[in-house]
Amino acid sequence: MLTLNTGDILARESDRKTLSENLTAAHSALKARTCPGAAFTDWLTWPRDGDKQEYDRLKAAAARIRADSRALVVIGIGGSYLGARAVVEALASPQYNLKKKSTPDIYFVGNNLSAAHLHEVIELIGNRDFSVNVISKSGTTTEPAVAFRLFKALLVEKYGKGGARARIYATTDKAKGALRDMAEREGYETFVIPDGIGGRYSVLTPVGLLPIAVAGIDTDALLDGALSAMNALDASGLETNPAWQYAAARNLLYRQGKTIEILAFYEPGLRFLGEWWKQLFGESEGKQGKGVFPASVELTADLHSMGQYIQEGRRDLFETVLSVDAPDAAVEAPFDPDNADGLNFLAGLSLFDINRRAMEATRLAHVDGGVPNLVLALPRLDAWNLGELLYFFMLACALSGLALGVNPFDQPGVEAYKVNMFALLGKPGYEAQGEALRKRLGG
Ligand code: PA5
Predict the structure, then answer these.
(1) What is the pLDDT of residues 257-289, one digit of tens each?
(2) According to CATH, where is 3.40.50.10490 located in the chain?
(3) What are the pocket residues of ligand 1 if the criterion is a CB atom closer than 6 Å to any ligand atom?
(4) What is the rounded CA–CA span in Å between residue 274 and residue 67?
(5) Which segments of 30-104 are extended strands (E)?
(6) 75, 148 in Cβ contact below 8 A?
(7) What is the pTM (predicted TM-score) of this model?
(8) Which CATH architecture has domain 43-217?
């Protein structure tokens, strides 16, 4: 089980009492599905209640893709791709595509509007066999929809209409939306984005699981870890429930003016877990002029870029260190007879131990510099423990948002840029806004 060390952040009895009351109310309303956004809380019991038949079909589709494709193009943005990429990078490798392996390369596209990126992925796939998993609830999100047009055309060109149909897997709404309509019309195999689960809470549904399974990751273990977290974190109690403790600590720190949280990790494979976490907390809490701003750093690398700011910049930060307690590779610092760098005192030490000392040293320096510190420790980085962690973060995020007084399951602010973009691109129906915006831009 993961553990959370909140140091002395929750030491005061009076703080604990208030936070406990807030969290009791938040957790009860969440479980009773009476909280704001209750219609989007099915992730709460998904590890137990998810559709088993669909899951078996998903595993069969992943096996088919592994057998007939050397590359899988995953098309989606935000909650429709960050979870899958986080898990693939954490458990397979951030350099997954460069590794010698029996599973297909995985390219994540449709998460930007960069011509260079799309062009490069098309070149990298070359004439290899590939399949596409397009993931979109609506089917009309510009970034993935444009990418899907491109890759669908490439598939049709390479395999013909029938061949393309067999290589397109659409993960979308069960009944409505542009992608659902197209999938029905064209006869694609489909997987469902459940109605009651928003994008950023969807990593354990087919949204995340199909690409994760294609990468050869043990999805059973991932779901088992999440199920274990679901059972363990169901009980109320600030003294015993780490999800409560995390939600309580960040709410208390926020009220004390620590409005920026930095998720710090010492394994490069966790970089996209940081991206997923940022969307989860940022989109859930950042509304009505409120919310902790989530940032992430990959250490020790970023100690040489962001370290100065964390140590001595504005004191509105707190840090959550994600620690992995077991090594997954044995590498030792070598002895060098010249000792030009003066580092022979490290010779024979494992990199794992050196990395841990760096983590401990940094943590203490940051605390001394006025940056409160929490440590979230995973026994090891494997599918089971990651499943547990993903569920932990989702529950803690929901509790934290509810305790803050916001609806952690909506994202009304995401629409603003879309309206402007459509207006500037000339989408029919947006003419008046387009004219007003062009004036503001001086055009
Ligand atoms: O979390 C969310 O809801 C968003 O990040 C969406 O997943 C994202 O905007 C993509 O939307 P769609 O799945 O409709 O293409």
Answers:
(1) 999 999 999 999 999 999 999 999 999 999 999
(2) 3-34+223-404, 43-217
(3) 77-80, 136-138, 141, 144, 198-200, 411
(4) 31
(5) 71-75
(6) yes
(7) 0.97
(8) 3-Layer(aba) Sandwich (3.40)
